[in-house]
Amino acid sequence: MSEMNIEMKGIDKAFGSNQVLKNAGFFLKDGEVHALMGENGAGKSTLMKILTGVYTRDAGTVLVDGKEVVYKNPQEAEKAGIVFIYQELNVLFDLTVEENLFMGKEITKGFGICDKKAMRAKAQEVMDKMGVNIPVDAVMSDLSVGQQQMVEICKALMADAKVIIMDEPTAALTASETRGLFEVINSLRKKGVSIVYISHRMEEIFELCDRITVLRDGEYVGTENIAEIDLDHVVQMMIGRTIGERFPKRESHIGAEVLRVEGLTSGKLFKDVHFDVKAGEVLGVSGLMGAGRTEIMQALFGNLPLDSGKIFIDGKEVTIKNPRQAIANGIGFITEDRKVEGLLLEKSIAENIHIANLGKVSNGFVLNKEKQLNLVKKGIEEFKVRCFGPEHECGNLSGGNQQKIVLAKWVYTDPKILILDEPTRGVDIGAKKEIYNIINQMAADGVAVIMVSSELPEVLGMSDRIAVVHEGKITGILDAAEADQAKVMTLATGGSL
Known about the structure:
The chain is an alpha/beta fold. The chain folds into 2 domains: about 5-240, Rossmann fold; about 255-490, Rossmann fold (3-Layer(aba) Sandwich), CATH 3.40.50.300. About 35% of the residues lie in helices and about 25% in strands. The protein has 17 helices and 22 strands. It has helices at about 45-50, 75-80, 95-100, 115-130, 145-160, 175-190, 200-210, 230-240, 295-300, 325-330, 340, 350-355, 370-380, 400-410, 430-445, 455-460, 485-490, and strands at about 5-15, 20-30, 35, 60-65, 65-70, 80-85, 165, 195-200, 210-215, 220-225, 255-265, 270-280, 280-285, 310-315, 315-320, 330-335, 360-365, 365, 415-420, 450, 465-470, 475-480. Strands 6-7-8-3-9-10 form a 6-stranded mixed beta sheet, with helices on both faces. Helix 4 (about 115-130) packs across helix 5, helix 12 packs parallel to helix 14 and helix 14 packs parallel to helix 15. The longest helix has 16 residues, at about 175-190. It starts with 5 loop residues before the first strand and ends in a 5-residue tail after the last helix.
């Protein structure tokens, strides 16, 4: 495989009056894994979209192997050997794995007829080389996000990519899928393929990457060798200051039981689930992806039917068959997928916050403009949302700021119980700290908080107790003081302590 070095310098890009990149740069060497980091909205994805021809640059140069290039579109970039795997995967869900791999690149025999046998063999060969155990005739919609991600990487390899850009590749992967991805990345590096790795997960950057480039507010901050720096140095580069404690400490003042569930069962998803949460407590929920964590929470919120089991709030048994009943009983739910379930992306910040808080911003049936504006301004200020004001469309906010709007929306409903499913997924370290502060404040205000997270350091750093789920059952509930990664993983894989 021939080598490829890429140098981007002096890159400017504005969308209207919003200057997204100013004098940004990036230098990728052949056969390296290069982390591209920065807070949400720092311009990382935009810079890579300029490289691959999604956007045109306003100023600056892009050199590939010393020659200036301008790719008109992603197809041109791909022909040159540069492939971008987006966070929102670019897959056709109703087609098979094989059909996705060969879309627009079918192998044909005479008269343009598809050579199914050759395509199947080639697809299988690439899958085997990657150590990916997915049937090539499986329909994409039946696969996990992690498996879909692997299919995208296989597609890049079939395009004979010399450079693969991965945007938050492990955000939705299980621990074992992440390990598999790392093995693939390491074998690609040995073959001379370069990887641009965009991620907020610090542990991964230090384990996987050779060098790191940081952008801040659209500007180039610097490039360092990973072996020569530490976490504090990266954070300093990203946010211009040190962050202090990664997980802010709080005094726990745990009160009376607010929620208790007994024997919750739903089909094959989970069975005989028991736990309780008290006022002012953060109950972390851990477990491998697919263990049933989200499904338990969806059922508690009335989004999934229960076959049996009881739910008690403040000691009284309640019936929750739909989200309206859950909200009426004081439950708020911040879902795992903010883009699909948490926000109306084409609507403004104001509209998104109002939608769950109509009682607060209306007089009877009439919306009160002043109350609306005050609530939204309060949300933007309290939650430190980086935006142009209440009318800013949510689809144009960075991931961290979108998550803060979802939080604000539910926090202002004054819930007794707040369920947070992956509250910091795809969120940078600065915004994470702010979200942790909000969670701590909710607990301090006496809310019973349930936090589902795939990030073990987060569960250990933020929880008072940790409930561990394995194959639809809670295998143990640990006090944070006695919990560690080894104990949680033992329970999460079906072992006992």
